[in-house]
Amino acid sequence: MRRVDLARAEALVDTPAMAAEIARITAALPIGVRARQCPVRTIALGMLLTQADHRPAHLSRVHEALCALSEEDRRRLGVTVDWHGTPHQLTYRQVEYLNTLVETALGKDEPDGLAADGLQGFVDAARHAGLLCGLAGSLAERDIARLAPLGPDLLGFRGALCRDAARARGFDPERLRGVAAAMRRVRLDEPAHGGA
């Protein structure tokens, strides 16, 4: 892993908007989990590092990117920790488990993340760092008009594309058509707030 990629990723996650969102997500996790689990900030860094290598941020790739860091960086970021006097390196199952906890903590009917101005700062920071930027998290068709003008490279939908907006109910082609039509009604390539 190139040191410059880690420095750029850390600069992005430490922007005020991202740091506040990471703190909010961490606070939403079950209290007993926080001390034993890899920090949310570190997982976010792993996701950005996969993007720096032009790879999708699949959890297995996030794990690989974090484990490929130098020993010093792995210890500093909580990828390698002392466990009963023995070094323990983050496992794929721990990454997967934290991802599940975060999804559960944030799985609301209404998105309750950053306000539009905070999201604009995040999108701008990602573009400035030369990274693709996607916005996701319990998005519904009605969120497109609010989020698309911020200029992300993509908007991510899962439940919004399922019957009754429930992922367990399976894919609904009619909902996909509705989201696709709403996306066509906005221009994703022209940020409303002067993004890069």
Summed up, what is this model?
With about 200 residues, this protein is mainly alpha-helical. The protein is built from ten helices and four strands, in the order ααααααββααβαβα.
Description:
With 196 residues, this protein is mainly α. The protein has two domains: 3-106, no CATH class; 116-184, no CATH class. Helix content is 52%, strand content 7%. The protein has ten helices and four strands, in the order H-H-H-H-H-H-E-E-H-H-E-H-E-H. The strands form two sheets. It has a two-stranded antiparallel sheet. Strands 3-4 form a two-stranded parallel ribbon. Strand 3, helix 9 (144-147) and strand 4 form a beta-alpha-beta unit. Helix 4 crosses helix 5 and helix 5 packs across helix 7. It is globular, with a radius of gyration of 18 Å. Residues 108-112 and 188-196 have low confidence and may be disordered.
Name its key features:
single chain; 196 residues; mainly alpha; disordered C terminus; 52% helix; two-stranded antiparallel sheet; two-stranded parallel ribbon; 2 domains
